[in-house]
Amino acid sequence: MIRTRFAPSPTGYLHIGGARTALFSWAYARKHAGKFILRIEDTDMERSTDASVQAILEGMRWLGLDWDEGPFHQMHRLDRYREVAEQLIGEGKAYHCYCSKEDLDAMREAQRSRGEKPRYDGRWRPENARSLGLTPPPGAKPIVRFRNPLEGEVTFHDLVKGAITVANAELDDLVILRADGVPTYNFGVVVDDLDMRITHVIRGDDHVNNTPRQVNIFRALGAELPHFAHAPMILGADGERLSKRHGAVSVMQYADDGFLPEAMLNYLARLGWSHGDAELFAKETFIDWFDLAHISRSPAQFNPEKLRWLNQQYLKSADDGRLAHAVAPLIERDGGTLAGGPPLERVVALLKERTETLAQLADEAMTFYGNREPSAGLLGEYITPEVKPALAELATRLGGLGDWSADAINAEVQVVAKARGMKMPRLAVPLRVLVFGVTQTPALSAVLALAGRERVIGRLKRYAG
User: Fold this and answer.
1) Which among 273, 358, 265 is positioned nearest to 312, based on CA atoms?
2) pTM of structure
3) Of residues 244, 283, 316, 352, which has the active-site annotation?
4) Whole-number mean pLDDT of the chain?
5) Does the annotation count 244 as an active-site position?
């Protein structure tokens, strides 16, 4: 059975890159009827927080990325890491090292002065320690280092990038267990992936350089390698690594800004993966289509405008009741009053075609629920002596309407404009100003019908009667 995992470090929120990794791993498991495991890599004790864990879980739930097992926490598995480290020591594949920070700093400085690459020199390998006459300092707690092969190469096949080979001479003896018994990243990952029977490791290609070290640890443990697939980095529009200035904020910030989870999921899917020219597709379709062969080797580019366009497409097709439920609290938060106004579902149905986010939709809806009065500037510019009589006549004609519908209202506006020799904009814009306090709305007759007889006639009589 295929088993994938998402293993975030809880040192912040769920960001765009992490969400894309989670999506790819989740989709691959779902496509193959496998299992998706959530693991919290919380060994960075200085930066890991419970708040970050909750932020990550909240982001995944919002996106609909459900997990089958977990969340597992590395800090709950310390005994297991110590057990595996002792196994490697017993087999001569790892050893205790007593280098202090000062020792390492001096070692690297000497190497730099000789023009060498700074790296651990293996002095505490048992054979080297004996030849150098090294003995453990009294009371010192050792770290554990992995005995990396000195010769040969480490090769693995990446399902995105192809074969990757690194000379073992480029890799020094990695610390796998700190003096306090907490594992380092590369060691904890291997033990966890083995214990959780992970078959496919799908992650960002910033981890490619870690993989040769992990491969050597897998092999030292006599384990079969999982399949690796490294997705491309995500860059901003300027070609630089994605950062907050490009919009790389928490996925929940996008939720707060009025994006729909299905639009975000669709957008994340297209960051480094494609299925022909398809742009819009449901989550179920993505699962059916998703494969590792079509993950790009080239960096993906984050485009906020494209995300907004996608969100707009999903808003247009979204259920009006669902949208009304989502924007109601936003309207009330901004001081709007829903009671006594037109049915919110009808307002949403009228406005959603022209908005990109729920926040914009709520703002547009304030036209009906915010009771905006026309400003003195708008009154002075549009409610001219020429226009006032036409508006007064329109108030009379609309007051006598038995059928308060968009078609009936439109017919009366047309009659007044024709009788007064006015082009429609000369009458329509002042009418919008009086009733809604703005110069632009969707189709005039439709918004007047929704606003209701009382509001329309009342505003006309107050300002033009």
Assistant:
1) 358
2) 0.91
3) 244
4) 94
5) yes
